[in-house]
């Protein structure tokens, strides 16, 4: 009996010492986890969580000590003011890096908080060019920006769809308006004519007033800069008003949820764009989709592969620098160059993903089909 007690005590001491030698490194994840686009926010968080779980399963050693990564998830509600509040909360919690935020409108003001604290952040989904043009050394993104996406959208609408007259609507967020502005430039450069420019909000559900005005100018195509929570109901109201223009939106509407929200109003004249390759064409896409489904019992929405690679980039930089301290691993993060789920993850001097691809999709047979 005494020998058993002594043996258990020694075993307990050994486990305690091993645990004491383990270093906990906290990473933050921020996205809207409540509200109309919470499905996209949870998708972001799940992608980051899966990357952290993979790193912990493999076992990571930094500065001679085993590291266990923890993810601190925060809900910014897609609200800029809340975004800065939770950013400060993560800084106060001593996170060593952040994956997020989702929306450009929250990411840009939050990036100032992280910059002041010296905490690197990698957004998997904020596409407004302003984010990486502020001169902050610790700001990166794993997704193409709106200049790249808007340029392709404008060429596609005029060149591929043959639209000569185009109406443009945006939700007046940094993302929606920014993408609409870039698309408008590209439409005009391609020889198209913008016959209406209207705006709504990212909380609206009734678009009859602006759509009635647009019906009067009979555009060949309508572009909407905003999220699926507005794009879906907007399609329904277009059908109710008898507007038969082709409908095009950006990555915010390129989700399975958009199809659900649009119901029978969505058809083969509905298109969306997505920065990056189609998941089936991503080097690690098919495997990621299978693992994601098994782990979270839900399908990939949009951004989780980009969130996975964002978290992986931070972890790999820490390993390369042999330090989890932001000031020490930041130079390694800048030099990132690895094969991720989405393809090669490497950043330019501004922090944008190099050679960011953009894919156009068409609604076919109940799903988004890459063109």
Automatic annotation (TrEMBL):
Signal sequence segment: 1-20
Residue ranges that the Swiss-Prot or TrEMBL entry lists as coiled coil: none
Family statement drawn from the similarity comment of this UniProt entry: Belongs to the leucine-binding protein family.
Domain of life: Bacteria
Domain Leucine-binding protein: 25-366
PANTHER family documented for this protein: AMINO ACID BINDING PROTEIN, LEU/ILE/VAL-BINDING ABC TRANSPORTER SUBUNIT
Protein keywords: Signal
Protein name (Swiss-Prot/TrEMBL): Amino acid ABC transporter
InterPro entries: Leu-bd (IPR028081), Peripla_BP_I (IPR028082)
């Amino acid at each position: 009996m005494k020998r058993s007690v002594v043996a258990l005590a020694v075993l307990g001491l050994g486990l305690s010492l091993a645990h004491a030698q383990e270093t906990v490194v906290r990473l933050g994840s921020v996205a809207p986890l409540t509200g109309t686009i919470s499905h996209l926010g949870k998708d972001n968080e799940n992608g980051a969580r899966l990357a952290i779980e993979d790193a912990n399963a493999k076992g990571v050693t930094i500065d001679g000590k085993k590291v266990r990564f923890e993810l601190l998830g925060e809900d910014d509600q897609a609200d800029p003011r809340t975004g800065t509040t939770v950013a400060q909360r993560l800084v106060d919690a001593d996170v060593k890096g952040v994956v997020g935020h989702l929306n450009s409108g929250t990411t840009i003001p939050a990036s100032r908080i992280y910059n002041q604290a010296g905490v690197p952040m990698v957004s998997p989904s904020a596409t407004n060019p302003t984010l990486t043009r502020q001169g902050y050394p610790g700001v990166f993104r794993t997704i193409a920006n709106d200049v790249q996406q808007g340029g392709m959208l404008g060429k596609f609408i005029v060149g591929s769809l043959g639209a000569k007259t185009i109406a443009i609507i945006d939700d007046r967020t940094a993302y929606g308006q920014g993408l609409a502005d870039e698309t408008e430039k590209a439409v005009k450069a391609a020889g198209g004519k913008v016959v209406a420019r209207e705006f709504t909000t990212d909380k609206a559900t009734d678009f009859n007033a602006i759509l009635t005005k647009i019906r009067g100018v009979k555009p060949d195509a309508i572009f909407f800069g905003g999220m699926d929570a507005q794009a879906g109901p907007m399609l329904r109201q277009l059908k109710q008003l008898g507007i038969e223009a082709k409908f095009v939106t950006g990555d915010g509407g390129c989700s399975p949820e958009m199809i659900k929200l649009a119901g029978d109003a969505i058809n083969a004249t509905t298109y969306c764009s997505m920065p990056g390759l189609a998941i089936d064409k991503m080097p690690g896409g098919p495997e990621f989709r299978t693992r994601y489904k098994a782990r979270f019992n839900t399908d990939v929405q949009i951004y989780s592969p980009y969130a996975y690679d964002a978290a992986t980039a931070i972890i790999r930089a820490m390993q390369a620098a042999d330090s989890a301290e932001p000031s020490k691993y930041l130079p390694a993060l800048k030099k990132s160059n690895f094969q991720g789920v989405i393809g090669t993850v490497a950043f330019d001097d501004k922090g944008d993903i190099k050679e960011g691809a953009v894919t156009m999709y068409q609604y076919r047979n109940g799903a988004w089909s890459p063109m």
